[in-house]
Each structure stands twice: as structure tokens, then as C-alpha cells.
Specification:
The protein is of the alpha+beta class. 52% of the residues lie in helices and 20% in strands.
Length: 1408
């Protein structure tokens, strides 16, 4: 059984319509075929266009699978496609409380269908009095996340468990079926319970947001329903029924099991389109690896040339779980989901090719029964076969000859031949009747024309008279045919009446019934029917002869309306029959397929009409027979009553006469009175007797007609049965004719497609041959030059060298040395003697072993063919990649032009609404709009051409892939294989060397370019800042500065480095308190720290670099590298950047090409320049006498630097770059600190340590030595302090105990606290600018907003998928750094409007 493939095209999204995307798919009406691009067609079992509904997809794809599960067949349905193509929507694993019933997916509908089927089978068994079948339904829900099988029904599973190794094992039983160990299996008893389980598992599934899909599935989900059914064995046929009736009443039960896999595959994705980073990128790579393994399995099963090879089920756990579904015991349906937009053209093409390969997979589907049920079924089948053979022996179909051999009876063959002949005769009779009708119509036409000619000669003809004559003639012919039919019926009735009257009466003289009531003699009725058929045939012949008379005689006959009969001789009859036979033969020979089809339809219509008439007549006859039977019973009852009355009256009369004779004193009056009474009774009874006699006569008359009715009823029933058989035969013939025409049409379509493909193939081969010719010419020219050079080198050499050679060594190493020698000489090496020795070896071997030389030549030819094939594949892939790049570039241009078109349209509408009189501006906008539309049309045409070229290259690639390279390699001998391996090794080494050289050159050029860009960017930045300071006093300079800013934007955008990308605003985040507006990407590892100004952003990372970003342009300016380890803290002040790594603080002057001017150590030493530049590798160890520096902070004036090193804080005077003192007092390492300034100009330093305490230091200007804390905040936290932030007179602290505390700096006491503010460490705190809100971030990636006055929560969201390490703010935005290698820029509701200005500036810079 082949795997069924369905293709569904989702509707276009609103975003795609806004961006101007075109539809690149077209579904052929009435055919399961989709056309991609211009002419690339793919055919599947079902194709559903964009307007398809969920119900249609379920009815066509899944409904039959559920019914098969009730019969014990396994089933699988899985959805495949790119991310965002509608797989989860189609399968129904994504739940929404507002989803209507018509949008339910496959799984909810299948569950409902399953339980309705169970209820129907139970009800049917109860109605038939059979034992009710027992069902046991259980469910499993698995998730394959990063190649780990997870149980979605496991309620004890934590989110962090995804990163640990799963305990679920996959095994294979003796029959080859796959099962899992360690998975939760839930027994389900109702539809609602099953849906609750499905919902619970779906909500536990891993999902995330990407640039292509807001809610993207990040794992493969497999929902499995196990069905176990115990039911009474169903009888196979009537023989089994008779067997069961004859046997005992013991019921036989069978156990059927089935499993149904619903697989929702995660979408294949490209990282450059999804924009995935961090964990999202790892998930995408894992998803693509699993789908690649699935594609390899499908290729191994579907490719005819690879069916005998190994199927790599064990390459992935996904393919291992689906082993039964792909090539195993399962009815499998694949739904390929695609996008119709042209921006997803390559993804759609790959999906369609993927599905096309899956159509060739063959599954081995069997019923899942227990062993006892299988044995019982086999025995029942064998018994049925034997009983069928026994029945054939009894009926005489089979017979055993004298030699003991079985054979088929000749009577059976003769009966079959007679039936075929009977059918042929019926067809001929039908054809004769149609020929007679056609001749009658033609005769009518001729008579009317002749009459018109006669009238026209007399001068009285007109068109109306001609039409009237034609109608009269037609009516006369119809009446004549009806008269002949009436005469035939009358003659038949007269014969029947004569035959009935000749029969004996129904009642004899003795009062008993006649034997005729028992029915007529069968033999007599058969002869009567044959006689009637013969006479009807004679009537038909006479009727035909009448119609074939000369037209003139017939016209005179019609005009005179003479009803005389015309007698024809036997010769006329024979001539008519011969003419009919000739007409039939000629018509049979000249009929075409279309005429046969029309004849079949006409015959079918006539037979259907006759069947309806005959059926109605039979119903009337049966009703009349039932009425006759009822009357007969009534009359018989009345007759019996009257006879009983007569007997009673006679007895009473005898009794009265006896009494009268015995009574002597009877008066005469009394006698008269009694006599009168009896006379009155006698008269009444006589009247009743007369009525009954009349009824008896009527009854006798009805009985006479009964035999006629019975015979007519039998005849009509036979005719009806024969007509039904003819109808069935004609319908079969019509179906066969339709099938033949459909096959012929499909064959023609295939031939056309084959011719087109051959034409494209020939064109491609022509191009290949031309390229091959050019390559051969180059090779020939090079070889000629080599031969000429060799001849020059060989001439002065003596022949003694050849005789001194050792032949065995040459013969052993020739196959390796000769090619190497040729390669060496071709590369220009001067060693000519070595080449001469090898050539001499080749000459000796040529004379001694010609077979080896022949093998080497064959191997060389194979190597050249393989090399050409490899070159062709590389060129094809490079060309396709270039075309794809061009198409993506065109799509981006179209998107940009569409955005500009919408912007100009809105501007034009706004101008028309505000100032309708301004026509000049509107006219210019209209011209610009027309220009944009023309450019968009041109780009659309270019995109279509690019898609067509890609399709052509893909077809050429498929045709090239048809040439199996493995067949060439497999046909090699050992010597040839060694030869090919040597060449492959040399080619790989050469290519690797070339790649390494190119890579080193690229790195050198990138370094130069980077240095140049850094210098240029720094100089431009400094120039811009200097001009900005002077522009405050010079308006003209300010205007020029705006133009310079645009120029700087263009310069910065040309740098290919990190970039700040805008984040589209989703509907769910518009009403939130915090909104992500941009994201900075460029670090290769986790970002640990962040600092910001209004124009610049500084980030430090585990990749040992600190990057400087321009918030105006949205681009990276420079990267400060050369750190020994992770950059854990960064600060900026007046063109100086301070970065911390291990025990060193580097001071960078970004005005002078990002040069490190000082290096400070945790012990208080100051070094000029970069002391860490000598070490290029990562250094984890800290030098002796030094401590790890955790954080640094600058005082508000930027003159003093505080560095938390160990359990103390170093104080540095930045004006002299000297260490002036230490802040002492903590027992554990200082993890964080913050600096504020009091009213008298003192620095207020607040530190948080791992010893759970927060301390405050007052540092006056010029203080030296050790400084003790002025206050120790009580009560302490329950764990180490991770973050501190000051707002006015309040201090906020976040700790590893998951809590946040608010302290009053004036009173130096605790005001408020939130014990469990987060579920994990509070790693960072920040105050929202110009707003009474506090932002906190935890190690779980969650951000929360708090009101600074009450510490009440204002909202929360998942800011990052990884821990949040640092938070920084400027005058308008917030910045969060995370382990996912990104920095997100946030805007809070209620903050300054400057954030919108910054966002608009960045958006405009990126769009330009």
C-alpha cells in the first residue's frame, strides 16, 4: 500500500499582502495537481487550495484511517512544511479557547469520530442481539526536543529538565514494531477526557517566537492513541453463516489492536530568515537535523535505485519512532503544508520535492490480531474455500475424470457461451428496433417532402402548409403504430381468452374446486409464451415491411386513409431481412467511440424508462391479485355461512313438522301463522341465495382472469429482471468507456509532458556538451604543451637510464607514481629526470603487462567522468545559490518599494484631506507613485523569471541526479578503485590548500577593512561630537550638522558588523507596561554587562570583547578586543571606556582608534598600554596577589573609579590614574556597588557582598587609605547581593534569595520588601527613566515592573530565554543584557516621548 500525500496551501497573511507578495502556486481545477511558478507541476493524492476548510481535509485524509483502526489497522498522519505554513493549525495541537468548531483540526475531529464509532458499534451489536464489543482506549503524548524524547503527560517534569538526558527508551519487538519504555500512558474513557489530555500536553509543548512565526513549534510532537477491541468474530460470507448455524452456539471472540500516530513536525527553517539566536538557533539546527534524517529515510524508501540499500532509521530518534509509519505496518498520510507567497518560493519548492519523494514509499499493512484470532481466521478462510469447492462439485461445475484429474464441466462453458450469445442477440434486437425507428423518421421526412413538391407544382404550396402536412403525416404514422400495437394486444388477449375458456370450470358438479385453481401447466405456459414471441416477431417484420414500401404508394395510402392490408411475399421479407443485416453490419463497422457512448446512453435511458413502466404495471397486477384473493376469502366465508344457515333452517323445518305432527290440538290459525313465517324466511333466504349465486358467477369470472394476470405478471417480472441486467451491463460498459477515454487523455498528457521534458533535457545536454567541448579544447591545448615540453627534455637523455631501472619496483608503484609525476610536471617543477624514469617505467609495463595499462586507462576515463560530474554539481549548486540570492535581493527591494508606496499614498491622502487646492504637490506625488508601481511591476517580472530559472536548474539537477555515481564506483576493480582514491585524495588536498589560502587572504583583507572602518568611524564620531558642541551657538552649523548626520548614517550602514534591528510590535504586547522596540545582535557568546548614554551603547561579553554601538544609526562602531577572559563590567565617561576582565581594568580612548592607554590591576598597580595584548588565548587563572574584579562604578562627575575586587573596593583617581585607597569591611567578596553624591559633594558608595550584607561608605574628595563603612543595613538578605540601584533617597537591592528590598537612605532603615519577587536570583535592577517604576530581571529571563513607592507589581513578561545579567538606562530607554547573546532595548509606557524619537531615528536609518 502506497503512502498517501496531501498538499495544503495556507491563505496569504496580512503581512505578506502588505509587503506586496504575489501568489506563486496554482491548483489545477478538478485535478489533484499544483503548479509552482510558471509550468512546474506536482501531482499528489489530494490538493487543497487556500479556500479549503478543515472539514474537507479531515473527510478526505483522516476519516478512512479511523475506520481502518476499528478493523485492526495502524495509522499515521503527519504534517510537514516550513515554519509558519499551518501545520499545527491543520493537526489541531495548538489550543485556543475562542476557536470555533469549524476550525477544529484533525486530532479533535478524529477523537470525536473515534468515540462516535465506538458508540455506534455497541448500539448495533445490542440491536442485533450479539455481545457488545469491549474497547480500551489509551493515549501517549511525546515531544522530541533537541533529539531528546520528553513525556508531555509527565506532570512532575520541570522546564529545566529539557536540558537533561531523557530516561525514555525506544525498543523494537520480535515482529519489528516500535514501542517506548518509560512513557506515561493514560487510559481514557470519554471524548472530553481525551481532549483534556490533548490540551494538557499541548500547553506543555515547547514554543517560541521567531521572525517568521509568532508562535513557532520548537519540537516535534507525536500524539498516539492505542485502541484495543474485543468483539465477536464477524462471518466472512454465507458459507461461514451456514457453518455457524450448523455448529454449536458458542461465540468466537477476536482481539484487535491498533495505534494511531498524530505527528506535528516542527517547521524547517533558515536561520537567516527566522533571525534565531541562542537557544532558538540550537533548536532550529536540531529540527533541521531531524528533518534531514527523515528525508534520507524517505529517499532510501522511495528511490527505486536505493530500495535495496540500508534505510537509516537510527540516524534520528524521530525516524526511529516513525519506523512503523515509513515502510512498515501502517496506513500513512502525509500532509505537506506550504505558503503561496513568492517570498517563500524556495521553501515551497523544497517541500513539494520532499512530498513527491514520499509518494513512492510502499507500506506493508496487516491486521493486528492476537495469535488465536489469526489462527481462527485462517481456519475459517480454509473452510470457506473447501465449502465453495464442494458446492461446485454438487452443482456440476467441477468434475473428476476417470484419471482422477479435476476439470470444469463442459455444460458450464456451454452455459456461459449461450449467455453471451443471448446478450449479443438482445443487443442486435435493440439495434434493429433503433434502425426501424430511424427508417420511420426518414420515411416521414420523405413523404412530407414529396407532398410539398406536389403542392408546389399545383401552385398551392407554402411553408405553413408544408409544416402542417409533415405534422399530419407524423401523427398518422404514430396512430398507425399505436393501432398495430393495439391489434397485437387484442389478438393476444383473444387467444388467452380462448385458451382460458377451453379449460374446465373452477367448480364441478360435486361442489369441489377444480384442479385449474392450482395453477396452469408449466409446459403449456412455456409453449404459449414461445408462440406469442414468434407472433410478435412476425408482427414486427410486417410492420417493418410496411415502412419500407415505396414513398409514393405510402403517400397515396396516407392521403386516401385506406386501411387495407398489404400482402407481401416471402421474397420481400427475405430482402428486407438482408437489407437490415447489411445495415447493421455497416453500422457496426463504421461506429466510432463517440457513437458507442451515445448509443449506450440512449439504450440506458430507454431501458430505464421501460423498467419504470414494467415495474408500475407489475405493482398494479400484484395489487389486483391481492384484492382478488381478499374477495375470494370473503365469498368463501359467506358461502360457508349460508350453507350452515340452510342446514340450520332444514333442521328447524324438520323439527317443526315433527312437532306439528305430534301435537293434535294445534289450531289452524297457529298453523297458518307458522307457515307464513317460514314462507317469509324462505323468500329472504332465496334472495340471499340469488345474490350469492351472482357473486359466485363474478368470482368465477375473476378466477378465469387470474390465470391471465398471473401469466402476465410472470412475463413482466422476467422482462423487468432482463432489463435490469441489461441496464447493469450498459452502465458497466459506459464506465469502461469513460475509463478508456480518461486513460487516453492522461496518456496524451504524459506524452506531452515527456516531450517537454525531453526537449529541456536535450537543451541542457546541448549546453553541457558545449561546455565539455570547450573544456576538452583547453585540456588538449595543455596536454599538447606538456608533450612538447617532455619531448624537449627526453631528447638529450641516453637510453642507458632505461636499462638500469628495476622493473618490479616500477610495476608495483606505477599506478601511484605515474599520475603523481604528471601532476608534478604540470605544476611546473624542474625535476625532469624523475619524470623520464617514470615514463620509462610506463613503457616497460606497457610491453610486459598490457592488461594493467588497459585498467589504468579505464580508471582514468572513470575519473574524468566523475570529475566532470562533480564540477557540474558544484556549478549547478553555485548557480542555484546565486539565483536564490538574487531573488531574496529582489524581494527586499520589492518590500522597500511597497513600504515607500504606502507611505506616499498616505501622504497623498493626507494632502487631499487637508488642502484640496494643492494640485502641484498631488501631481508630483502621483508621478512618484506611478514610478514606484512601474518599478514594483518590473521587480515582480524579474522575480518570476528568477523562479523559472531556478525551476529549470532544479529539473536539470534532478536529471543529473538520475545518473547514479555509485554505479560507476561500484563497477570499478580494485586497481581502478585505488586509482580513483588517489585522485580524490590529491584533489581534496589541493582544494583544501586553495581554500586555506583564500581564507587567510580574506582574513587579512577583513582585518585591514576593519581597521580602516574603525579609524574612519572614530574620526567621524569625534568630528560629529565636536560639531555638535559648537552647533549649540551656531544655527547655520546646526543645519549643516543635519546633513553630516545623514552622511554618517550612510557611512555607518556600510559596515558589516553588529546591528540593532527593530522588533515588530505584536498585538499581545501593545497593551503591556513594557515593550521591546529593538534588539542588538553581534556578540558570539553571552552578554554579561551593559552601559549606555543617549547616543552610545557599550556591551561586554564572554567572547572577550566589548562592543560600542551607535544608537542613532543602529550599527556597531567598534569592537574592543584583547581581554584575557570574560568582560564582566563596562563603564563610559568622556571618551574613555573602562572594561573589566579577571583582575584587570582596561582604559580605552575611543578617540584614538580605540587604543588601550592604561591597564589597572586589582592590587593597585597601573601599567601604560595594554599588558594583556601578548596573550591571545583565554586566561582563566588569576596572578598571585590579585583578586577577581566583579564590578566597577564611576562617581557622577567621572573623576573617581570604584572597583569591587575581593572583599574590598579599590578607589582610583582618574585625573592622575593612581590608586588612592580601599573601602574595607565586608567578610565576603563584593559582588555589586553603586555610587551617589550627597548635597555637600561627597561620594556615597553602597556595596553589596556575598556575606548577605549591604554597607554604605562616605568618601570625601582626596580621601586616602582604608575607609570603613559608615552604616551597615539591617536586617540582611538571606543570600548574596546581586544588584543595587539608587533613586533619590531610596535604595533598592536584589539578592540570590529571590527577594527585593527597599531602603531609606535618609533614615537608613528598611522600608519595604518583597520576599519572593522572582522564582530565581534577582540578577539586575534598573529605574525606568522619568517614571516611578523599577525594573528587575532574574536568572530565569523574566522581567518585572514595580512601583517605586509601594513596591507593588505592575506587570511581568519573559524578556529573554536565558538569564538576564545586567540592566542599564539612559534618558529614554532601558537595556537588558542576557546569555542569549543579545541586548534588548525596551520602552516603558508612561516614560518620556524621546524613546519614540530614538526608535523612529533607528527605523529610518535602517530603512535608508
Amino acid at each position: 500500500m502506497s503512502l498517501s500525500v496531501c498538499h495544503r496551501i495556507r491563505p496569504q497573511l496580512a503581512k505578506e499582502k502588505i509587503e506586496g507578495c504575489h501568489i506563486c502556486t496554482f491548483v489545477t481545477p478538478g485535478e489533484p495537481q499544483v503548479v509552482l511558478g510558471k509550468d512546474k507541476a506536482f501531482t499528489y493524492d489530494y490538493v487543497f487550495d487556500m479556500d479549503s476548510t478543515q472539514d474537507t481535509i479531515y473527510a478526505n485524509c483522516t476519516e478512512k484511517l479511523i475506520e481502518g483502526c476499528f478493523e485492526g489497522y495502524n495509522a499515521t498522519i503527519f504534517a510537514y512544511g516550513q515554519t509558519g505554513s499551518g501545520k499545527t493549525y491543520t493537526m489541531g495541537t495548538g489550543f485556543d479557547v475562542t476557536i470555533p468548531d469549524e476550525e477544529l483540526g484533525i486530532i479533535p475531529r478524529a477523537v470525536s469520530h473515534l468515540y462516535k464509532g465506538i458508540e455506534q458499534r455497541r448500539q448495533a451489536a445490542a440491536d442485533q442481539g450479539r455481545p457488545v464489543p469491549e474497547f480500551k482506549i489509551s493515549a501517549q503524548f511525546l515531544e522530541l526536543y533537541n533529539e531528546e524524547v520528553l513525556d508531555l503527560f509527565d506532570t512532575t517534569r520541570d522546564i529545566e529538565m529539557r536540558k537533561q538526558k531523557s530516561h525514555i527508551k525506544i525498543h523494537e519487538d520480535a515482529s519489528g514494531s516500535i514501542y517506548t519504555v518509560g512513557v506515561t500512558t493514560r487510559t481514557v474513557s470519554s471524548e472530553a477526557e481525551m481532549m483534556q489530555c490533548l490540551k494538557l500536553g499541548a500547553l506543555s509543548r515547547t514554543t517560541a517566537s521567531t521572525q517568521m512565526n509568532v508562535q513557532s513549534s520548537r519540537s516535534h510532537a507525536i500524539f498516539t492513541i492505542h485502541i484495543c477491541q474485543v468483539r465477536v468474530c464477524a462471518p466472512d460470507n454465507e458459507t461461514d453463516n451456514r457453518l455457524a448455524n450448523s455448529s454449536s452456539e458458542v461465540e468466537e471472540f477476536e482481539t484487535l489492536t491498533a495505534k494511531f500516530h498524530f505527528v506535528d513536525l516542527a517547521g524547517s527553517e533558515r536561520l537567516k530568515r527566522t533571525g534565531a539566536t541562542g537557544d532558538r538557533a540550537k533548536e532550529g539546527i536540531s529540527i533541521n537535523c531531524g528533518l534531514l534524517a527523515l528525508g534520507n529515510v524517505i529517499s532510501a524508501l522511495g528511490d527505486r535505485s536505493k530500495r535495496s540499500s540500508h534505510v537509516p532509521y537510527r540516524d534520528s530518534k524521530l525516524t526511529r519512532l516513525l519506523q512503523d509509519s515509513l515502510g512498515g505496518n501502517s496506513q500513512t498520510v502525509m500532509i505537506a503544508c506550504t505558503s503561496p507567497s513568492d517570498q517563500d518560493f524556495m521553501e515551497t519548492l523544497n517541500t513539494l520535492k520532499y512530498a513527491n519523494r514520499a509518494r513512492n514509499i510502499k507500506n506493508k499493512v496487516v491486521v493486528n490480531q492476537d495469535k488465536a484470532s489469526q489462527q481462527i481466521s485462517a481456519l475459517r478462510t480454509e473452510i470457506a474455500r473447501l465449502q465453495m469447492e464442494l458446492m461446485e462439485y454438487r452443482t456440476g461445475k467441477r468434475m473428476v475424470g476417470e484419471d482422477g484429474l479435476e476439470s470444469i464441466n463442459d455444460m458450464f462453458h456451454e452455459n456461459s457461451m449461450l449467455q453471451i450469445e443471448n446478450n449479443n442477440l438482445r443487443m442486435r434486437v435493440k439495434a434493429m428496433q433503433e434502425a426501424i425507428d430511424a427508417q420511420g423518421a426518414r420515411l416521414t421526412q420523405l413523404l412530407s417532402e414529396q407532398a410539398n413538391q406536389v403542392l408546389s407544382r399545383a401552385g398551392e404550396g407554402s411553408e405553413e402548409i408544408g409544416n402542417m402536412i409533415q405534422n399530419y403525416i407524423k401523427e398518422i404514422e404514430d396512430l398507425r403504430s399505436k393501432l398495430l400495437e393495439s391489434e397485437a394486444v387484442n389478438e393476444n388477449l383473444r387467444r388467452n381468452l380462448t385458451r382460458v375458456s377451453s379449460r374446465p370450470p373452477f367448480f364441478g358438479s360435486s361442489g369441489t374446486f377444480s384442479p385449474a385453481l392450482l395453477g396452469p401447466d408449466p409446459s403449456q405456459e412455456t409453449s404459449d409464451i414461445i408462440e406469442i414471441a414468434k407472433k410478435d416477431l412476425e408482427k414486427l417484420k410486417r410492420k417493418e415491411k410496411k415502412k419500407k414500401k415505396s414513398p409514393l404508394a405510402l403517400s397515396e395510402h396516407i392521403l386516401k386513409t385506406d386501411d387495407r392490408e398489404e400482402g407481401d411475399g416471402e421474397e420481400d421479407e427475405e430482402d428486407a431481412e438482408e437489407e437490415e443485416m447489411e445495415a447493421e453490419e455497416s453500422s457496426d463497422e463504421s461506429d466510432s467511440d463517440l457513437d458507442e457512448k451515445e448509443d449506450f446512453q440512449a439504450d440506458l435511458a430507454n431501458i430505464t424508462c421501460e423498467i419504470a413502466i414494467k415495474q408500475k404495471l407489475i405493482d398494479e397486477l400484484e395489487n389486483s391479485q391481492r384484492r382478488l384473493h381478499t374477495l375470494k376469502q370473503q365469498y368463501e366465508q359467506k358461502l360457508m355461512m349460508l350453507q350452515s344457515k340452510i342446514r340450520d333452517t332444514q333442521q328447524e323445518r324438520d323439527r317443526v313438522l315433527h312437532n306439528m305432527g305430534s301435537v293434535e290440538s294445534c289450531s289452524e290459525d297457529k298453523t297458518k301463522r307458522i307457515k307464513a313465517e317460514y314462507e317469509k324466511k324462505l323468500s329472504v333466504m332465496n334472495k340471499e341465495l340469488q345474490k350469492l349465486q351472482a357473486a359466485q358467477k363474478e368470482h368465477a369470472r375473476l378466477l378465469k382472469n387470474q390465470s391471465q394476470y398471473e401469466k402476465q405478471l410472470k412475463k413482466l417480472q422476467l422482462d423487468l429482471a432482463e432489463m435490469k441486467k441489461t441496464k447493469v451491463r450498459l452502465m458497466k460498459q459506459m464506465k469502461e468507456q469513460q475509463e478508456k477515454s480518461r486513460m487516453a487523455e492522461s496518456r496524451r498528457n504524459r506524452e506531452i509532458a515527456t516531450l517537454k521534458k525531453d526537449q529541456r533535457k536535450q537543451e541542457h545536454q546541448l549546453k553541457l556538451l558545449e561546455a565539455q567541448k570547450r573544456q576538452q579544447e583547453l585540456i588538449l591545448r595543455r596536454k599538447t604543451e606538456e608533450v612538447t615540453a617532455l619531448r624537449r627534455q627526453v631528447r638529450p637523455v641516453s637510453g642507458k637510464v632505461t636499462r638500469k631501472l628495476n622493473p618490479p619496483e616500477a610495476s608495483q608503484d606505477l599506478s601511484h607514481r605515474a599520475p603523481a609525476g604528471r601532476t608534478y610536471s604540470a605544476s611546473g617543477a624542474p625535476n625532469g629526470a624523475r619524470y623520464i624514469i617514470q615514463a620509462s617505467c610506463a613503457l616497460i609495463l606497457y610491453h610486459r603487462r598490457p592488461v594493467g595499462v588497459y585498467s589504468t586507462r579505464v580508471a582514468r576515463g572513470k575519473w574524468q567522468s566523475l570529475e566532470r560530474r562533480i564540477s557540474d554539481i558544484i556549478m549547478q549548486r553555485v548557480t542555484i545559490s546565486n539565483m536564490e540570492t538574487d531573488m531574496n535581493r529582489l524581494l527586499k527591494q520589492r518590500e522597500e518599494l511597497t513600504r515607500r508606496r504606502d507611505k506616499i499614498s498616505r501622504k497623498r491622502e493626507r494632502l487631499l484631506a487637508e488642502e484640496p487646492e494643492v494640485e502641484k504637490d498631488v501631481q508630483s506625488l502621483n508621478e512618484e507613485l506611478e514610478s514606484l508601481l512601474a518599478n514594483i511591476d518590473y521587480i515582480n517580472d524579474s522575480i518570476s523569471d528568477c523562479q523559472a530559472n531556478i525551476m529549470q536548474m532544479e529539473e536539470a539537477k534532478e536529471e543529473g541526479d538520475a545518473v547514479d555515481v555509485s554505479a560507476v564506483v561500484g563497477s570499478c576493480t580494485l586497481t581502478e578503485a585505488r586509482f580513483l582514491l588517489d585522485h580524490f585524495m590529491s584533489m581534496a588536498i589541493n582544494k583544501g590548500l586553495q581554500a586555506a589560502q583564500k581564507e587567510s587572504q580574506i582574513k587579512v583583507l577583513e582585518g585591514r577593512l576593519k581597521q580602516t572602518e574603525i579609524n574612519s568611524a572614530t574620526q567621524n564620531q569625534l568630528l560629529f561630537h565636536m560639531l555638535k558642541e559648537k552647533a549649540e551657538f551656531n544655527p547655520e552649523l546646526d543645519a549643516l550638522l543635519g546633513n553630516a548626520l545623514n552622511l554618517l548614517i550612510v557611512v555607518f550602514l556600510t559596515c558589516v558588523r553588529g546591528v540593532i534591528n527593530p522588533v515588530p510590535v505584536s498585538k499581545s504586547s501593545r497593551g503591556g507596561s513594557l515593550q521591546c522596540i529593538h534588539i542588538a545582535e553581534g556578540h558570539s557568546k553571552a552578554v554579561l554587562c551593559v552601559d549606555s548614554t543617549d547616543d552610545l551603547l557599550f556591551t561586554g561579553s564572554k567572547d572577550r570583547t566589548c562592543k560600542v554601538w551607535n544608537l542613532v544609526t543602529g550599527q556597531e562602531i567598534m569592537s574592543l578586543a584583547g581581554h584575557p577572559n570574560n568582560v564582566v563590567s563596562v563603564r563610559y565617561s568622556s571618551s574613555l571606556v573602562f572594561t573589566v576582565s579577571t583582575s584587570y581594568i582596561k582604559v580605552w580612548d575611543i578617540r584614538d582608534s580605540a587604543k588601550c592607554i592604561r591597564t589597572l590591576t586589582s592590587s593597585g598597580l597601573v601599567n601604560t598600554g595594554d599588558t594583556c595584548a601578548a596573550s591571545t588565548n583565554r586566561t582563566v587563572t588569576i596572578p598571585a596577589g590579585e583578586n577577581q574584579i566583579n564590578q566597577i562604578f564611576l562617581n557622577p562627575s567621572g573623576t573617581v573609579l570604584y572597583a569591587a575586587a575581593g572583599n574590598s573596593v579599590r578607589v582610583w583617581d582618574l585625573r592622575r590614574f593612581v590608586c588612592t585607597g580601599k573601602l574595607m569591611g565586608h567578610l565576603g567578596p563584593v559582588m555589586c556597588l553603586t555610587v551617589d553624591q550627597t548635597g555637600n559633594g561627597q561620594d556615597l558608595v553602597i556595596t553589596g557582598s556575598k556575606d548577605h550584607y549591604i554597607k554604605m561608605f562616605d568618601v570625601t574628595e582626596g580621601a586616602v587609605g582604608s575607609i570603613s563603612p559608615t552604616h551597615n543595613f539591617e536586617p540582611p538578605h538571606y543570600d548574596g547581593i546581586e544588584s543595587l540601584v539608587v533613586q533619590g533617597d531610596c535604595l533598592f537591592s536584589g539578592s540570590r534569595d529571590n527577594g527585593i528590598k527597599k531602603w531609606d537612605l535618609t533614615r537608613k532603615d528598611l522600608q519595604q520588601q518583597v520576599p519572593n519577587a522572582h522564582r530565581d536570583w534577582v540578577c539586575a535592577l534598573g529605574v525606568v527613566p522619568a517614571s516611578p517604576m523599577l525594573l528587575s530581571g532574574c536568572r530565569g529571563g523574566v522581567l518585572k515592573l514595580w512601583h517605586t513607592d509601594t513596591l507593588s507589581p505592575l506587570g511581568e513578561l519573559r524578556g529573554h530565554e536565558s538569564p538576564i545579567n545586567s540592566i542599564s538606562t539612559n534618558s529614554s530607554c532601558l537595556f537588558t543584557a542576557s546569555d542569549d547573546r543579545t541586548v534588548k532595548i525596551w520602552r516603558a509606557r508612561g516614560s518620556l516621548d524621546g524613546a519614540a524619537d530614538v526608535a523612529d531615528a533607528i527605523d529610518e536609518a535602517v530603512s535608508n
